[in-house]
């Protein structure tokens, strides 16, 4: 994951980007990806899906994990 030289991505952010970069995912699939990356199910379902800096809501029941490709 590219970024400014002085910034290191968290392990969970790096894991999330490797799970499904650039693919459209359903809400359930993005929650599953967050949990696989190390987030708790409660956090993934409640806050992270709408506020995570690497997740974009792109349409009805569609989300995308952004990456640098």
Structure, described:
The chain has 69 residues and is an alpha+beta fold. It is built from 3 helices and 3 strands; from the N terminus they run αβααββ. Helix content is 43%, strand content 16%. Helix 2 crosses helix 3. The chain starts with 10 loop residues before the first helix and ends with a strand. The mean pLDDT is 85.
Q: How are the SSEs ordered, and which strands pair?
A:
Elements: H1 11-19, E1 24-25, H2 27-36, H3 41-51, E2 55-59, E3 62-65
Antiparallel strand pairs: 1-3, 2-3
Helix pairs in contact: 2-3
Describe the structure concisely:
The protein has helices spanning 11-19, 27-36, 41-51, and strands spanning 24-25, 55-59, 62-65. By secondary structure, it is of the alpha+beta class. The chain has a 3-stranded antiparallel β-sheet with strand order 1-3-2.
Determine the N-to-C terminus distance.
9 Å
Helix content: 40-55%
Spatial strand sequence of the major β-sheet: 1-3-2
Number of helices: 3
Class from helix and strand fractions: alpha+beta
Order of helices and strands: HEHHEE
Q: Approximately how much beta-strand content do the residues carry?
A: 15-25%
| Rg, alpha carbons | 12 Å
Question: Averaging pLDDT over every residue, what do you get?
Answer: 85
Instruction: State the major sheet.
Output: 3 strands, antiparallel
**Overall outline:** globular
Q: What's the total number of strands? A: 3
Stretches with pLDDT under 50, minimum 5 residues: none
Keywords summarizing the entry:
globular, three-stranded antiparallel β-sheet, alpha+beta, 43% helix, 69 residues
């Amino acid at each position: 994951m590219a970024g400014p030289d002085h910034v290191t991505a968290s392990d969970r952010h790096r894991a999330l980007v490797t799970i499904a970069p650039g693919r459209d995912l359903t809400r359930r699939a993005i929650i599953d990806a967050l949990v696989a990356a190390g987030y708790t199910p409660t956090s993934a379902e409640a806050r992270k899906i709408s506020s995570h800096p690497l997740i974009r809501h792109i349409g009805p029941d569609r989300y995308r994990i952004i990456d640098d490709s």
